[in-house]
Amino acid sequence: MPQIGSFRDSALLWHLNDKSSKVNIYATWSNVRKRHSKPNLLFDHNLSKCLRGNNVRKAKPRSHVEKCMSSMQMGTQMVKLRGGSKGLVRFFYLDEHKSCIRWRPSRKNEKAKISIDSIREVCEGKQSEIFQRYAEGSFDPNCCFSLYYGEHMESLDLVSGTGEEARTWITGLKYLMAGISDEDSLAKRQRTRDQYP
C-alpha cells in the first residue's frame, strides 16, 4: 500500500508520470516542484474559495461537463490527506451511476465512498483545517481541494497531480451537486402539490 512519509522526510514521496500531458510531479512535504512542457495559464495561483452546487449548469457548456464526468469515471490518482502527518496515494473515481465517489485501495472497501447527495460543499485550494497543518508551500493550491460531507461536515482533503485534474473534479462535483439540488426542489414541490391539491 503506497504511503507518504512524515514531515521530516526529505526523500521523494510520490511520483506521477502522465505521458499524455507530459507532466512529471515530484512532491515532498517541504516543497512541490512541477515541470510542464507548456506553462499552465488556466489557473490563478491566488484562487481559493468554497463552492456550492449552484449555477454550474449555466456556467459550463454541456460538452465540457460531460468530459469532466468521463474523466472522473476513468479515475484519478490523488493524495488523500489525513489528520496526522501522513497522506496516502489513492485512486479516486466516480461510480457508474454517478452517485458516489469511491477510492482504492482501502481496508474498508464498502466504506471507501462518499455519496454525491451527502456532499455539502466543495472547497477549492487549501481551505480546510487539515491543509492548514502542513507547512506553507507544501502543496500547489491549484492542486488542492476539499469535500465537506455528511451531517457532521467531515472533510475529504485531496491533492491532485495537476491543477487541471483538480478543476475537472471540482467542476464535475458542482454539476452533480446542482443536479441533486434540482431534484430535491422538484420533489419538494411535488410533495406540496400532493398535500395541497
Automatic annotation (TrEMBL):
<dbReference type="GO" id="GO:0048015">
    <property type="term" value="P:phosphatidylinositol-mediated signaling"/>
</dbReference>
<dbReference type="InterPro" id="IPR001192">
    <property type="entry name" value="PI-PLC_fam"/>
</dbReference>
<dbReference type="Pfam" id="PF16457">
    <property type="entry name" value="PH_12"/>
</dbReference>
<dbReference type="InterPro" id="IPR011993">
    <property type="entry name" value="PH-like_dom_sf"/>
</dbReference>
<protein>
    <submittedName>
        <fullName>-phosphatidylinositol 4,5-bisphosphate phosphodiesterase eta-2a isoform X5</fullName>
    </submittedName>
</protein>
<dbReference type="InterPro" id="IPR001849">
    <property type="entry name" value="PH_domain"/>
</dbReference>
<dbReference type="GO" id="GO:0051209">
    <property type="term" value="P:release of sequestered calcium ion into cytosol"/>
</dbReference>
<dbReference type="GO" id="GO:0004435">
    <property type="term" value="F:phosphatidylinositol-4,5-bisphosphate phospholipase C activity"/>
</dbReference>
<feature type="domain" description="PH">
    <location>
        <begin position="71"/>
        <end position="180"/>
    </location>
</feature>
<dbReference type="GO" id="GO:0046488">
    <property type="term" value="P:phosphatidylinositol metabolic process"/>
</dbReference>
